[in-house]
Amino acid sequence: MTLAACSGAGGSGSSSDGDKTTITALMVGNPQMEDIAKLTADSFTKETGITVKFTILPENELRDKVTQDVATQGGQYDVATIGAYEAPIWAKNGWLHELSSYADKDSTYDSADLLEPMVKSLSGEDGKLYAAPFYGESSFLMWNKELFAAKGLTMPERPTWQQVADFAAKLNDKQAGVAGICLRGLPGWGEVFAPLTTVVNTWGGTWFEKDWTPKVNAPEFSQATKFYVDLVRRYGEAGASQAGFTECLNTFGQGKAAMWYDATSAAGTLEDASASKVAGKVGYSFAPVNKTKSSGWLWAWAWAMPKTTKQADAAWKFISWATGKEYEKLVGEKMGWSRLPAGKRTSTYELPEYKQSATAFADITLKAIEEADPTNPGLQPRPALGVQFVGIPEFADLGTKVSQEVASAIAGKTTVDKALADGQKLAESVAEKYRK
Amino acid sequence: MRRLPWTILAWACGLVFFFPVLWMVLTGFKREADAASNPPTWVFAPTLDGYRQVFDRDLTPYLLNSLMASLFSTLLVLVLATPAAYALSLRPVAKWQDALFFFISTKMLPAVAALLPIYLVVKELGMLDNVWTMVILYSAMNLPLAIWMMRSFLLEVPTSVLEAAEMDGAGLLVSIRRVLLPIVSPGLAATALICFIFSWNEFFFAVNLTATRAGTAPIFLVGFISSEGLFLARLCAAATLVSLPVVLAGWLAQKQLVRGLSMGAVK
Amino acid sequence: MSSATLEKVPARPASRRVGRAPSRRDRWSRRAPLLPALIFAIIVTQVPFLVTLYLSTLSWNALRPGSREFTGLSNYGTVLSDGRLRAALLNTVVLTASSVIVSVLLGLGLAILLDRKFPGRGIVRTLLITPFLVMPMAAALLWKHAIYNPAYGLINGVLGGDTDWVSQYPMVAVVATLVWQWTPFMMLIILAGLQSQSLETLEAAKVDGATAWQTFLHVTLPYLRPYLELSALLGSIYLVQTFDAVFTITQGGPGTATTNLPYEIYLTTFRKFEYGEAAAAGVVVVIGTIVVATFALRVISGLFRMEVQR
Questions:
Q1: Domain count, chain A
Q2: Nearest CB to A93 within list C65, C257, C267
Q3: CA B196 to chain CA mean position, Å
Q4: Does residue C305 belong to the interface with chain B, where contact is any CB pair within 8 Å?
Q5: Which of residues 255-284 of C touch B (CB under 8 A)?
């Protein structure tokens, strides 16, 4: 490593000397990615002779870095993990290699096995796949079986938000330090607004209508947000306005919350006895609804190939391996079946070992993903793709700025009306760009 | 004189300031569930699991890159700053105030704003993901501090010593080498240590300008922050490991550091 | 050290050669040692700055490729009329001033405590400088998760209750972390000053009948003034640029309560991807800092004036 650095070789992200090819990969620091970093050398590199050098970064830094690299044609990475938000936008900008042609040529890849909502969310306007899903998730409601049983309450399979609020009121126990429900409140378009946008959707609200009219302070959006903010302020966890996935995972995993509405990927950690105190005691229900039939969100972390890569073939080999069936079995055998990067292939849910290790949540996860529709997640047509986000470049900034206000409302420093009024103004300036 | 209360107060302050660091080191030895438990776990069964996960991730290249970037940039800074400080103190140029102000003004553009222009320039030069790029950047980053500090140390040199050297007919270079350097070597050590610390801990430019080859220790550290899992224990383990070289250097050199700064952070 | 103060030559070395103005050769021989550093600094810092100036005249949104076009000074108009930037400026001033003032005061206190000999003095000094050696990113994460967190952080663990420190007192939370990290730096500089104080002067004050407090107020403090000023100057330069702490602990929130200028520029670059606007904001910050620094250095501080005596 040092010698390579000493030699002053820099610039392009990969090299090929003789028959040893090296590709560079940038990925987010989630458990599934850590596993692949560990497994690549002994499996993939041994089989194909392609060395993969990884850089792991947290989500924010990863997004910043990969966007900058791809937008300025830096070419530092051959493959990178991106989300369902970036994929269609970057495909439109012509920054990514189109992967359908590679997938179709590869007989073992079986792209028909990939879950349809996943493919839809990662495709460009030409209907071609631009990022291969690594693992996918939707959202559902997790609840503590013991706490519910103690109060003699039963959670239906498809609860409504009102039922959830009622349960939270009954189960909130300040003295015992148990919150009725744990909900995200951390500022960020993908943080508090992931669950909140799904609540907005199921209340019949939306960020923009089809003709780009912003509806951020419309009655539906407003009522949904007030409901969410009130619920979390009254029966939610302490420090909610700074609580993201990790904090809630912690709180719920320690048994300090009766319910938690968040990503399906949480189940893996919650059922791991070494990391969670509630393993085996968690019940799973579909995302609570109000006016829609389902409201789970749709997210995938996917491997994409920037067009600047000079090793497209080697990069595809890696991508197809990482998102293929063989790799899933490899993770299952070497790291444990609950760590399998699930949520992208139908075949995963037919693996007996996986079904056994994930009995509690595998089926509901699959159904939740299948029910999510990024083209039509609510009660009215949308101008862009996305269940819990709006698939336009400006949303990252818009969502983040409004989320800061909402977090402030959760902290009690402003009102929901004021927060959404400001949000409406910001959304207006975005809408202007699109109405032209 | 009532000494005891002041001694106790000094010790109390020392422990209070040190306590978060101690907590960080201890948390590195906890299980993830204990690291973020409510209420905090004071007594726990230590485990090396966090450290194992840290070492699983091949820490060495990152440490080596950090070492290279910090050492070389510190050397470069000293080589540039010492003569410059000389020219702004002992044998000052006419417009020394302007020069000093210029150097400090180079630190006024926020790193966030400077990143993109630097990124574009470095990209055009084909120097992305290269340790030498970081060496040059860190040198530019620390140069103003080094010049201001070295200048003060040089001002402490008694004029009698300089005059004696001049009388002996010593030329500029000789007088620098044989006369000044021994006197300001504590100051040199202090400046070197501070520049080393700042280079070692620099994160923002490193994360954006390096990829897989020139990644430095701070990048290794943040790789443990996960958005979908518990990470506090191994993050603390990684943070302890990554801070160790600097902390050790600081501890060993802190006597020198105080003396160095006392030799004349200001005249 | 103290001897130098007594032997200070009031005139510049050049005037030692009485009657002769510095020759051309003399002037160049003075400049020569400065040139390498100067040229290096100019190339490495001014080239990016020129690029920043150029970028600030473009309207460039990185997410819309092909939209790069020259727009003159309109970015500056956007930047200067942006309410968020004005709020960020206020936050920057509050954050920097509080952090600098508190850490200088604390540093002064700690330096005084450490100025006397007592058992374990070296150890205490070591303990006190450790916060400065820890990586700022790691320190920020430590404070956010292990200390401030309302559910599993130390403060609530020790004091009880479930106050959400970061949401209720965001600025205080950030400032506290920064003060923790920078007090050692201030302490070291001031301690150096204290230790270089001539004992004779202090003895003389005692002999004259001054109490410890009066000695401190009228002898030590004036002597320490340049040290206090330098630590404040260096601290300010670094603390104005604070980014890690804000990014990690509060993400500029709640709302925009702790968004300072660097963080706002970060948002413009990495959320809005308006590269031209971000560059313009950076230039505005530079100009503002230069104005403030010029005022501070040439009018208030004695740092520039004192040195003329050399």
A1: 2
A2: C65
A3: 4
A4: no
A5: 261-263, 265-266, 269, 275, 278-279, 281-283
**CATH number of domain containing A125:** 3.40.190.10
3-state helix, strand, coil in chain A (%, to 5): 45, 15, 40
Nearest CB neighbour to A55, from listed B38, B56, B211: B211
Side chain identity at A350, as an amino acid letter?
Answer: E
What is the dotted CATH code of the domain comprising B48-262? 1.10.3720.10
CB C254 within 8 Å of CB C167: yes
Distance CA A183, CA A260 (A): 6
How is domain C42-307 classified at the CATH fold level? MetI-like fold (1.10.3720)
Domains in chain B: boundaries: 48-262
- The pLDDT-based confidence of C1 (bands split at 50, 70, 90) is very low
State how far the Cα of A42 lies from the Cα of A33, in Å rounded to an integer: 15
- Looking at B93-97, B121-125, C279-283, which range is the least confident one? B93-97
CB-based contact C64 A393, cutoff 8 Å: yes
In terms of Cβ atoms closer than 10 Å to its own Cβ (0-12, 13-18, 19+), residue A412 is: middle
- pTM for this prediction: 0.86
Asked which of A356-360, B134-138, C213-217, C273-277 is least confident by mean pLDDT, the reply is: C213-217
Q: What angle do CA B71, B203, B100 make, to 5 degrees?
A: 65
Question: Which of the four pLDDT bands, split at 50, 70 and 90, describes residue B170?
Answer: low
Judgement on whether residues A24 and A114 belong to the same structural domain of the protein? yes
Tell me, yes or no, whether A206 and A317 share the same domain.
Answer: no
Q: Is B208 on the interface with C (CB under 8 A)?
A: no
Sign of the Cα torsion C111, C117, C120, C122 reads: positive
